[in-house]
Amino acid sequence: MEPDYEEDDDHVYINEETELGRENVVISHAPRARIVPPLNFCPVERYLYRSGQPSTVNFPFLLDLKLKTIIWLANEEPQDALLEFCDAHAIQLQFATINPDGGEDDNPWDGLTEHSIISALRTIVNVESYPLLVCCGMGRHRTGTVIGCLRRIMGWNLASVSEEYRRFTGSRGGRILVELLIEAFDTQLVEIDRAKAPQWLLTAV
């Protein structure tokens, strides 16, 4: 059985293309634009996305999404590069937890409060904010909390909500307090204006 490749540089690389008698494809240089999604990036619904905090290398990718709004789910401010990116491209950056009047403290390690979750969800259920990205530092627990509460509004069962949340939590797994918060969240606290709601949400509710 012939090998799939040759280690000797004098030999031609053997792959499916050459085996089928097609010409070799030679790449002379890398693409000019690096299209790199942010950590834990994933579409949630049509024009609704989730991720960790975007960095400079992710900005070309974000431009392709034509974002109108980014919801930042942390008490600490995002990196200056993200703030400047939003200013330069007229993207509204909503701080869902930096709100002393709402009762949050300044501890960046604390979980989201009911007030901050509702604030984020009110933006998410309004199609005028779209395309929209929900993000936090790593795109795991805080982002997962808000998306989990959105799934509750959409009528998902708790097993499906927990499975989606844990998919993004990494090797350490999910946090039981996050799942309990999602389970206890009162979905009636988020009023949905059917005239402004995304179509996928109207279909779900």
Automatic annotation (TrEMBL):
InterPro entries: PFA-DSPs, Prot-tyrosine_phosphatase-like, Siw14-like, TYR_PHOSPHATASE_DUAL_dom. It catalyses: O-phospho-L-tyrosyl-[protein] + H2O = L-tyrosyl-[protein] + phosphate. The keyword Cytoplasm applies. It holds the Pfam family Y_phosphatase2. It is found in: Cytoplasm. PROSITE patterns: TYR_PHOSPHATASE_DUAL. Its main location: cytoplasm. GO terms for molecular function: protein tyrosine phosphatase activity. One of its GO terms (cellular component) is cytoplasm. Keywords: Cytoplasm, Hydrolase, Protein phosphatase, Stress response. It is an enzyme of class 3 (hydrolase). PANTHER family: TYROSINE-PROTEIN PHOSPHATASE, TYROSINE-PROTEIN PHOSPHATASE OCA1-RELATED. Belongs to the protein-tyrosine phosphatase family. Putative tyrosine-protein phosphatase required for protection against superoxide stress. This is Putative tyrosine-protein phosphatase OCA1.
